[in-house]
């Protein structure tokens, strides 16, 4: 029948419209204003009903764990930048980046570059970065750098509020700006971090097992060697006879 499809479509819209108010009454009107945050979070998930408006920037949608924006560097120095005790030098010292250059190599638009640190006395190159830059205007958020980093050092951030009025400082992120604590990483990507911690522990356990096996074999060899050397003179004596 002509117009039935239109009516069906409008009824779906009407249902969503009514659900919005039902949800508001159920979770906000009866439970009070404190439930607004809880309701806002619930509405973002599969249990959400009806329409809702995000009052940005007062309200923000929680990005899903796999959401990726600009990469950042992980440091094992576990103090937040907002903390008064934060020491930027120590944060860089405990950074995981070894300056291997793999991320820069795999980056499709080539927006990563770095400078290797050197020993101040000998001048020898060290396995860490002294400088590290990402041009965020060129970065296309592909996540290849994070995917290929062998040291779990570079990860994709959730922070998307990066608008700025000037380019050199605001859009080219340096090592200080890029470095963030492992707790921050765990807060935005708990599943990833847990998997990586488990993998590292398993690798350490395997290494320890292999080392112990090597030591055991070496000890066995050492106990066998003297017996052989005792037999040697005997055979030598027999040969002479
Ligand atoms: S791949 Fe990882 S360890 Fe290597 S330079 Fe990039 S961030 Fe540093
Ligand atoms: S996310 Fe992609 S484009 Fe951005 S720095 Fe990493 S590899 Fe390069």
Q: How would you describe the shape?
A: elongated
Instruction: Write out the strand line-up for the largest beta sheet, numbering strands in chain order.
Output: 4-1-6
- The ordered string of helix (H) and strand (E) elements is HHEHHEEHEHEHEHH
CATH topology of the largest domain: Alpha-Beta Plaits
> CATH top level of the largest domain?
Alpha Beta
Distance between the termini: 118 Å
Uncertain regions spanning at least 5 consecutive residues:
none
Provide a descriptive summary of the structure in words.
The chain is α+β, with helices and mostly antiparallel strands. It has two domains: 1-61, no CATH class; 71-188, Alpha-Beta Plaits. It has nine helices and six strands, in the order H-H-E-H-H-E-E-H-E-H-E-H-E-H-H. The protein binds iron/sulfur cluster (2 copies).
